[in-house]
Amino acid sequence: MDQSPWTELDKEHLAFADIDLVEIEGEIEPERIAMPDVAPAFAPQGAVSRVLGERYRYREGQVEMAQLVRQALVEGRPAVIEAGTGCGKSFAYLIPLIWSGARALVSTANKTLQTQLWEKDVPTLRQVSPRRFTAALLKGRSNYVCFLKLREARQQIALPSMEDGLRRVIERLADTPSGDVEEMRLFGPLCDAVTARAHECLGKECPHFSNCYYERARMQAEEADLVIVNHALLALSLLRPILSPRPVVVVDEAHELERYVINALRLELEHETVPQFVNDAVVMRHAPDTLRAETIGISHGLFESLSQKPTDNERRWTIPGTLPEGLALADRINAIGKRLLKAYPPEPGGGEGNEVNARHQMTIEWANELTAQVRALSKDVSPDQIRYCEEQPGKTGADSVILCQEPIQVADFLREALFATIRRVICTGATLSVDGRFDYFLHQTGLPGPEVIQRVIDSPFDYPNQALLYTPRGLEPQYGPGEEEYALSLGREIWRLIQASRGRAFVLCTSVRRMRQLYELISPHLEYPCYCQGEGLSRAELLDLFQNDADGAVLFATRSFWEGVDVPGEALSLVIIDKLPFAPYRDPVVQHRQQLIRDGGGNPFYELLLPEAILTLKQGVGRLIRTETDRGVMAILDSRVNTKRYGAQVIASLPRARRTLRIGDVKRFFAPD
Description:
- The protein is of the alpha/beta class.
- The chain folds into 3 domains: 28-140 and 217-265 and 412-457, Rossmann fold; 142-213, no CATH class; 463-670, P-loop containing nucleotide triphosphate hydrolases (Rossmann fold, 3-Layer(aba) Sandwich), CATH 3.40.50.
- The protein contains 26 helices and 20 strands.
- The strands form 4 sheets. It has a 7-stranded parallel β-sheet, with helices on both faces. It has a 7-stranded parallel β-sheet with strand order 16-17-15-18-19-14-20, sandwiched between helices.
- Helix 21 (539-548) links the parallel strand 16 and strand 17 (554-557).
- Residues 1-27 have low confidence and may be disordered.
């Protein structure tokens, strides 16, 4: 097999501006960052104009944001900057970072946005930067091909289709020096077969360690001036450092930070986890069959009991108290671990025995970690944690259940692990404020408010002329006896809107159930192509079909389409929101968080439910106007924005579009000139 050689870093871009680091009471800070004004870079004849040419548009908001980032770097302060759609925020933070010469970490919400920074923005700025700089892209271990897993997969081929797939992997590796599975477009079982999870990595004892794609990416990132990561990796690195601390961290799409940190701190146990461990080759060789069978039996019994939902309609449900079956399961896993330890006590490796010994020690470590995980999940839960079961879509019974435990809030963790260690943390995004204030974001993330540079920068788009905000009367959500009639009224309103817009619409729903109900109700009566999320096509495939359909397509979708979706031009001219996106009131996590606020004398609606709904709503309507020439209607089909006291706060948080309560205005907006 051809193992792509490690390419040398581009010598042309080695940094020449070193910054001395000092450690002050546990903080990693540059002694100073002295840098010139960055405004000239955005001038009509400046660096950005030169590199973008005719595509360049001067934006006051972009310059303002860049100056604020510069201020945060020079003064050694955190910053929270909301920059509306179209401000060009990636250049607004990258230019001060690169121009300053500071070693920085840039984190964004997902791998798609990470790739955009890496493949478009960084190479563009490299052409005009006054400093030479090195940059690196880093993802989690499971995003890179593992030579050892690839070797094992080739040795255990069971299906001709897998053999063909592995042959394609080897061919693509020759043209993909990074070994990045996304770059190679590897998905599903084939991707799983050639990537390693944490308990499958042999580390330095792996015979392919010197050629490991992940280790090479990590080494390159360690040496680089600028490192592009995603929030999942950033959150994990706060628990177990992957890179040396950087004096500057930029958190783009920062509204997602809390969720990723909670995910990193969450404990999970799936139905298949224990059987996978028990059927590991090392375990099968050294644990008695009776012990293995007993362990699987207890695990299955545990999940059978966990799968008994309080009601059929719940997707998540609380699991209170101690779990005796879970504690018994932890004891059995621990007993297996002791058997393995007795058979393979730790010893210094040597020669050809390294890989075999490493495999044994890896399995012993897996046993120890799984024992601790199951035991922690089985003990009574502390008030600052919540334990619940979650049902996986498409599965039923015990197989569908995941047992989870997570913290109710991560502000204290973030304050200690991130903000107290690195002063120059710059949080940015298009949806961080509620009615122009950052109180909710600061509270959820633990940012020290008085020290923080705070600014809301409006979008440069002309919303009053480009967009119409439609909030009709008479559509307040109903449940119980009135729900069927409400759904019919909602469907009729959506049909009228789509007729007015001639298709070209997103129907964004707050639940899968409502999405399917509306799709089945409306699509047979539309002359436009209709697509529905969850019908066998990926998000990328659905977007491609929607965007390239010349007949004015309509897409019915749920939460994953509320953000991170960019459809500029006439293909998307109408965004419909079925109702205000309040969190499900029966959700155990939501209920627990509300109770903690009540216990502290607060109001959970105004301190939790409303701010989260507003931020989600801002993401949803933000899909509409993506360029300075886009036109369209944002329709929020929830009359509570007209009748409830909090409606004014909702409207004040949205783009400043013209607002109407009349369908006639929508028809006139879409009428041909």
